[in-house]
Amino acid sequence: MGLEKNVDIAPAAGRLGVLLPGMGAVGTTFIAGVLAIRKGLAPPVGSLSQMGRIRLGKRSEATNPRIADYVPLVGLDDLVFGGWDVYPDDAYVAASRAGVLEGHLLEQLGGDLRAIRPMPAVFEQSYVRNLHGDHVKAGASKMDMADQLAEDIGRFSDEHGCERLVGVWCGSTEVYREPTAVHQSLEAFEEGLRRSSPDIAPSQIYAYAFLKLGIPYANGAPNLSVDFPAMAELARRTRTPITGKDFKTGQTLMKTILAPGFKARLLGVEGWYSTNILGNRDGEVLDDPESFKSKEVSKLGVLDTILQPDVYPGLYGDMAHVVRINYYPPRGDNKEGWDNIDITGWLGYPMQIKVNFLCRDSILAAPLVLDLALFLDLAKRAGLHGIQEWLSFYWKSPAHAEGVYPEHDLFIQLTKLKNTLRHLKGDELITHLGAEYYDGDDEPDR
User: Fold this and answer.
1) By the 8 A CB rule, do 44 and 370 touch?
2) Which pLDDT band, with edges at 50, 70 and 90, does 131 fall under?
3) 6 to each of 200, 386, 428, 441, how far by Cα in Å?
4) What is the DSSP pairing of strand 162-169 with strand 217-219?
5) Whole-number pLDDT of residue 434
6) Sign of the C-alpha dihedral computed for residues 189, 193, 194 and 195 taken in this order
7) 15-248+362-425 — its CATH code?
């Protein structure tokens, strides 16, 4: 049985412009990856929007269409790319320097990548101390900078014939900052832009420019960017969808897979020690203690929400959770994460789990950029606006409604995402009740 009516979703017609503040390793890996997939050079592994399937109806009916065929997503051939960076390198040079993708693949994409050149970035040295570039904007105020970004966006859209746009921050981690008075209302924030408040970070200027134009925006770093009252107010006014922050890729992805299992089996966790070595631009930026603080806060919030030490104090109330990140240039984009997990079982007997994840940071992040761009565009066309909790699946720090905790369990997040797609199409939502509770009418699963 479906819902009473489908949500009215505007067609995915025309070109979608994907604009990236930050065109380093993650941004160029995403762009090159989409170009390679278009040419049939590689499969879209890791992308739920491209490879994922969704069950409809009873399990016995075996109806499992591809998500890309089920909801009206923009096709990859209709994506066009642009962005900003503190370095003037075109996407081919930037991808070559990032060292993520092999040279023979980049050579096959060379012409397309060389045509993508970044616009000068909004940048403030005090927010990213270990990054030094001179391809940056100058302006009379931070509001002037926002206006320049709006002009960039409009010009890009006109030049590339875009019907719609989305923005995804792929830039560096800024120093840790908590909201101040300037972030509490849109009026205060706009006055802060006009007087160039030092509390307004570059990533917030990008977010303001996008949301002011009604363009969906996602924040791939742990920066304070849209997660404060002024931006929530702006998103409501312009009826624009926003979501969480900080791509959930390597070590945190593993935590959101493992921790729900420990909790489900009621195994205690006495300690979880995590350390990383990373040598790309992100690692260099995170070598600054204040930038690391932003990442640390994002990473530390995951386990408490999943394990609920307030509900299970005997199992998780005294858990020690430590996170370290070390910049190690020889490793490049190939991040290595070590986890030592001290768990307890029956009668309190201790056990240990060791995880050594040798991952490719940008390879894990690139498909998330694609999914978020496509799903945020879908949300906009469906008339959804404000916080999109159904996209929590992608974030270390999911956005959430006021008065509730964020959901970090990866499997609950996936259920919520797929049920939202079913709702948009007017199909029956899937629950965890067995068929016996429906008198044989349905057999929902995960």
Assistant:
1) yes
2) confident
3) 41, 20, 11, 21
4) parallel
5) 57
6) positive
7) 3.40.50.720
- Mean pLDDT value across the chain: 91
Which residue has 């965890």 as its token pair? 432
Q: How far apart are CA 242 and CA 261, in angstroms?
A: 30
Q: Reading across the β-sheet that carries 336-344, which strands appear in turn?
A: 320-327, 268-278, 336-344, 350-358
Identify whether the C-beta of residue 193 lies closer than 8 Å to the C-beta of residue 205: yes
Give the type of residue at 412: I
- Pick the closest to residue 304 from 176, 409, 412 (CA basis): 409
Kindly state the average pLDDT of the residues 306-335: 90
Output phi, psi for 154, to 5 deg.
-65, -40
For residue 298, what pLDDT is reported?
56
CATH code assigned to 257-358: 3.30.360.10
pLDDT tens sequence across 244-294: 999 999 889 999 999 999 999 999 999 999 998 887 666 666 556 665 565
For CATH 3.40.50.720, the residue range(s) in the chain are 15-248+362-425
How is residue 326 written in tokens? Answer: 């070390």
pTM of the full structure: 0.91
* Rounded-to-integer distance, Cα 348 and Cα 342, Å: 12
CA distances from 342 to 193, 304, 325 (A): 48, 16, 20
